[in-house]
From TrEMBL:
EC identifiers of the protein: 2.7.13.3
Domain spans labelled Histidine kinase: 14-231
Reactions catalysed according to its record: ATP + protein L-histidine = ADP + protein N-phospho-L-histidine
Protein origin, superkingdom: Bacteria
Classification via PROSITE patterns: HIS_KIN
Species: Nostoc linckia FACHB-391
Signal peptide location: none
Designated name of the protein: histidine kinase
Length: 244
């Protein structure tokens, strides 16, 4: 009973974290549009408005879900193009990175061995990637953030790398613990609940993905997410995982 109560608390906390993050990002971009930072005409600000619409739909989609927050099921499983998926995230977060005087890059290959189709719960995958990108922006004072889509042997790889403050070696084992924050982050002006990387890890685990973190203090951090290639020609979740 106690474990079930803790699980529900974590589900609620993770939902609250991601909904508030989505609407906080929307508010930031809206304020820039109001200030005229990206032009005055409709054509000039149209890309931003599209990004705002997608951010808003992300928040509403999380609130409206009727399935477990972080686990894929037959009801939420779908197929999508990771190349387009990451491009949309790049356009949404580029303006947020610019607001913080950072450069956001999206790097791709010319061709991919087995294409870029992924099977999974797109809302949960979105939560995983958004939390990692948000953290990269939050803890990078200057420099660059890179989103990459690569092949590694037969698998599809997503990399998110920053030139930020990095993570001390002795703290790496703690970063996926819910509500944990590095001692130095508690002393900064960066808001946070210590839930973002927990959410990212749980989504990866539920989808059978591998996640690796490489970090050097004061130099930067790189997250590597591996979408395994399946025999039916699709990356990601095996449909049999969701037959529960």
């Amino acid at each position: 009973m106690q474990q079930e109560s803790l699980s529900k608390q974590l589900d609620f906390s993770s939902l609250l974290h991601d909904v508030s993050s989505s609407f906080r990002a929307t508010s930031l971009v809206l304020n820039q549009i109001i200030d005229g930072a990206y032009g005055q005409s409709l054509e000039e600000i149209r890309p931003l408005l599209i990004g705002l619409q997608e951010m808003n739909e992300r928040g509403l989609g999380l609130v409206d879900r009727r399935t477990p927050c972080l686990e894929p099921s037959l009801a939420t499983l779908g197929q999508f193009d990771m190349l387009d998926f990451l491009q949309k995230l790049y356009f949404q977060y580029k303006v947020i990175a610019q607001y913080h005087s950072l450069n956001l890059h999206y790097e791709t290959q010319v061709t991919y061995k087995h294409g870029t189709q992924v099977r999974g719960d797109s809302i949960s995958i979105d939560r995983m990637l958004c939390n990692i990108i948000t953290n990269a922006i939050k803890y990078t004072l200057r420099g660059d953030i890179f989103i990459r889509l690569l092949n590694q042997d037969d698998d599809l790889i997503v990399e998110i790398e920053d030139t930020g403050c990095g993570i001390a070696a002795e703290q790496l084992s703690n970063i996926f613990i819910p509500f944990w924050r590095a001692p130095q982050s508690k002393l900064s002006d960066k808001p946070g609940r210590g839930m973002g990387l927990y959410i990212a890890w749980m989504v990866a685990y539920a989808h059978g993905l591998s996640m690796r973190v490489d970090s050097v203090a004061k130099q930067g951090t790189k997250f590597t997410i591996i979408f395994p290639y399946k025999d039916d020609g699709i990356y990601g979740v095996d449909g049999r995982m969701c037959l529960k």
